[in-house]
Structure formats: C-alpha cells, structure tokens
Amino acid sequence: MTRIALLTTAIVTGLMVTTGANAFGGAQGSLERPSFAQIDTDGDGKVTAEEMQALPATMASERFKAADTDGDGKISKEELTAAMTQMRETRDAERAERMISRFDADKDGTVSEQEMLDGMGQGRKASPGERFIAMADTDKDGAVSEEEFAAAAERMEQRHARSDRDQKGRGGKGGWDGRDNDRMPFWRN
C-alpha cells in the first residue's frame, strides 16, 4: 500500500511539476535531479509521501528566490527574463556538451564534419533511412512509393498533432528537454 501511495504521489508530483516548470522557462538540465537528502527533509533516512508532495513547492521556492535578484519578494519582468535566459543557456550548454561528447571520436574537444557524419545514428539498431523504409513500406517491396510516402507523412502529421495536444494539455510544448515525446521526470520543476 505504501509503495502504491508513493508511486501515485510521484506521478501526481510529476504532472504538477511539468506545469510549474513552464513558469520559469521550461525544464532544466538533466543534472538538476534533487538528492535524496534534499527530498528527505526530516533527515530520517526515508522519503515519505508528504516529503514527495512538498518537493515541487520547495523547488519552486528555491527558483523564486534565485530569480528575485533584488530581494523584494517579487519577480519583475526583467528578473524573470534573466532567470529564463540563464536556464536556457545552462540547458543549451549541457546539450552542446553531450553532443560534443557523443561525436568527438578523437577526443580533441571539437567535432569535425567527418566525426559528425560518422556519429550520426550511433547506438541505433537501424539507420534513419532504414527505419523510415521499414515504417513506410507497407507493401514490403523494399522501397517507398509516392502513395506510401504520402500515407507515412499523414501518419506522422497526425502523431505530431496528437503529441502537441498532449503537451499543451500539460502546459508544455515538446518534451522535458525540448525533444518530442520525452516525458519529464518527477523531480523536474
């Protein structure tokens, strides 16, 4: 019963956090997951449902204080803009670092055009072209006709429209890090 209550709390918290994140410019970088100690506010070595429920407010309060640079207890348009800009810059820098790490085969801290081309599709079972053919080639002749292409484009458009409606219903556009169909983890705020 306790596990169900904690799981339910985590899910509800994740949904609440998704909406709150957009108030300060969207989700943050992947390294901002709270530590166990931050969630376990009474320090008893256990995370309770009450502590999980308090997490979004705690994180929002911390963000509010960080954004309120003049300390007047209110956030001006300028303060909010600066906070949102800083969060985006942090997120973009983390994304760039991940991309360099992924593509930089010679580990010189840069990515050459050849390294980028060599790294595309890295870690995937099939290339993007192979995945597209497998998805769109409904008659399984190994090629995509104009009709199959149009049908695949329509399916993708419908899926994208559903995804947009789903994301807008939760207050967002795109996933927690800007990629479509990603779901924001419960610790995001």
From TrEMBL:
Q: What InterPro entries does the annotation carry? A: CML21-like (IPR052591), EF-hand-dom_pair (IPR011992), EF_Hand_1_Ca_BS (IPR018247), EF_hand_dom (IPR002048)
Tell me the leader sequence span: 1-23
Keyword S-adenosyl-L-methionine included in the entry's annotation:
no
- Region feature (Disordered): 151-189
The organism's taxonomy opens as: Bacteria, Pseudomonadati, Pseudomonadota, Alphaproteobacteria, Rhodobacterales
Task: Outline the extent of the EF-hand domain.
Answer: 55-90, 91-126, 130-159
The UniProt GO MF terms for this protein read:
calcium ion binding
Q: What is this protein called?
A: Ca2+-binding protein, EF-hand superfamily
- Which residue stretches does the UniProt record annotate as biased composition, category Basic and acidic residues? 154-169, 176-189
Q: Which domain of life is it from?
A: Bacteria
Entry keyword Transmembrane: no
The alphabetized UniProt keywords are: Signal
